[in-house]
Amino acid sequence: MPTIHVTPFPQDTPWQDFEKMTLHAMSLKWGSPNLQGEGRPGQGQDGVDIFGSDYLGRPVGIQCKKYSGVLKIDVVQKEVKLAEAFKGATLNCLYIATTAPHDVKLQRAVRALSEERVKEGKFAVGILYWDDIFTGLLLDNNILISHFPYLKFPDPTIVNSTKANKLSAFMLGYYGSFLLDYLELVFSEFGWMAQQDPEEIRTVLRIIRQNCKIAPKEQVVEITAWIDEIESELFMAKPKKDWEKIKLLSKRVRDRSKYLSSLLENFETASFIELGLNIGAVNWTDGKFTEELANKLAQKIYMLLIGATTMLPKTLDRIIDKDCYTAGPVLYNFVDRELRWGDY
Questions:
Q1: Residue 37: enclosing H or E segment and its boundaries?
Q2: Orientation angle between helical segments 291-304 and 324-341, nearest 10 degrees
Q3: Pairing of strands 93-98, 124-128
Q4: Rounded Cα distance, 156 and 164, in Å
Q5: pLDDT tens per residue across span 13-56
Q6: How far is C-alpha 272 from the chain's CA centre?
Q7: How far apart are CA 89 and CA 38, in angstroms?
Q8: Pick from 259, 255, 198, 251: which is nearest to 229 by CA?
Q9: Whole-angstrom Cα distance, residue 280 to residue 277?
Q10: Beta carbons within 10 angstroms of residue 131's beta carbon
Q11: Helices 267-283 and 324-341: crossing angle, nearest 10°?
């Protein structure tokens, strides 16, 4: 399943740091400054590590589980039972935040457990995976860097930075050209079944808004206005969302992002938009990542990233014959890393 670009969780991270990351991430995603850790490290907390309000102001708890293996439903049930004794407040929902890999069977079991509990008048249950947490950290670069100091970001105040423009162009092609796909994934029935977090869309919108600044001024004004309207329709408290309007505006952003390369005077910047679009297309393509497709993309990457000749073949070898939705993010990560850390 296509996901937003996520830095893998460092498995050697202490569990206390994972709790802090979760606290910071969900405070940002929910706009909830009153989220706080419960008790002291090592102190019994009745199944709740973090307590506060979610984005609707409801009292929620988060239990953090740092796992390298698979998280089982019996562990979730055990934490739910512990949380029933929580004395801080009456919970509306308990989230299990985990570094364990996505598991469709677990998600279905948790959803069934949650629905049964809600029918009984008890708090609901949900899962927060690492990508849910990381996309929260992406909302504030200062907080993100405090947890991952080795990450590098282009300085948005340096308008004429060649490297920043390349990275912005690449990200705009990758995300902007497929905004409608992200929307349909997250808000479709399939997205509901897979527990896709609507806040992922807010992150995508902010990425597009920030990186469209490489475009001519009049284009920036239009794209930014469309993004603002989409965000308002999706996240402002309204009785009913205007999905026709949201889709129309998303198509405009998508089409403008796809064809923006033809409006840019700088050929190299335009080429990075095209590269982002090409890799994004892999991310959203059904089927396998073939050797023929790998060779075509390799030629384009070599033309733009001359120093990638050493590592790219190894990266491609790992993903040939894998599902395209697996290969796309790997290629994105590769180009993103080269642009941030390489000498281009």
A1: strand 36-37
A2: 10
A3: parallel
A4: 7
A5: 788 899 999 999 999 888 787 888 876 544 445 679 999 988 77
A6: 21
A7: 12
A8: 251
A9: 5
A10: 19
A11: 150
Q: Set out the domains of the chain in order of their start, with CATH numbers.
A: 15-135 (3.40.1350), 154-341 (no CATH)
What is the rounded distance in angstroms from the CA atom of residue 253 to the CA atom of residue 237? 23
How big is the chain by its Cα radius of gyration, in Å?
A: 21
Angle made by CA atoms 284, 262, 175, in degrees to the nearest 5: 30
Residue with tokens 């129309």, as numbered in its chain: 248
Nearest to residue 293, comparing CAs of 74, 34, 301? Answer: 301
Binning pLDDT at 50, 70 and 90, where does residue 5 land? low
Backbone angles phi, psi at 64, to 5 degrees: -95, 130
Cβ-based neighbours of 84, under 8 Å, separated by 6 or more: 47, 122
Distance CA 322, CA 338 (A): 22
Closest CA to 100 of 74, 63, 130: 130
Q: Which amino acid is at 198?
A: P
Burial of residue 34, with CB atoms counted within 10 A of its CB: 0-12 exposed, 13-18 middle, 19 or more buried: exposed
Q: Which residue, 121, 46, 43, is CA-closest to 81? A: 46
One-letter amino acid identity for 262?
S
CA 140 to chain centroid:
13
Distance CA 27, CA 170 (A): 29
